[in-house]
Amino acid sequence: MDIGVPAVSLRNIYKTILANQEKYSRDLFYRKVISLLKAEDVQQAQRELNSELIPEKLLTLTKHTETGFVLYDYPNTVTQAEK
């Protein structure tokens, strides 16, 4: 069903960031995301990504589209949705 807004998948965004690390590593925000995506403690990395980084970046994305967007893969919990 096409509702006329962009569909955003966090899983695809993470894959793109990892596949293009040289490009993204120039930015402090993305360097942090890359280090978390490569972290050995996956649960801790996921908590940090979801608790701080993702909501912050989502707020900046909303100013780039007047019609909104559909976000897949987030939020995964009630706590995330409340933020």
Helices and strands, in N-to-C order? EHHHHEH
Q: What's the tally of helices? A: 5
Mean pLDDT: 80
CA(first)-CA(last) distance: 28 Å
Rounded to an integer, what's the Rg over CA atoms? Answer: 13 Å
| pLDDT < 50 stretches | none
Extended strand count: 2
User: Overall 3D geometry?
Assistant: globular
Measured as a percent range, the helix fraction is 55-70%
Structural class designation: mainly alpha
Query: How many domains comprise the coordinates?
Result: 1
Strand percentage, roughly?
A: 5-15%
Give me the side-by-side strand order of the main sheet.
1-2
Largest beta-sheet characterization: 2 strands, parallel
Keywords:
83 residues; mainly alpha; two-stranded parallel ribbon; 5 helices; 60% helix
Task: Write structural notes for this entry.
Helix content is 60%, strand content 7%. It has 83 residues and is mainly alpha-helical. The protein has one domain. The protein has a two-stranded parallel ribbon with strand order 1-2. The longest helix has 21 residues. The termini are far apart. The model has no long low-confidence stretch (mean pLDDT 80).
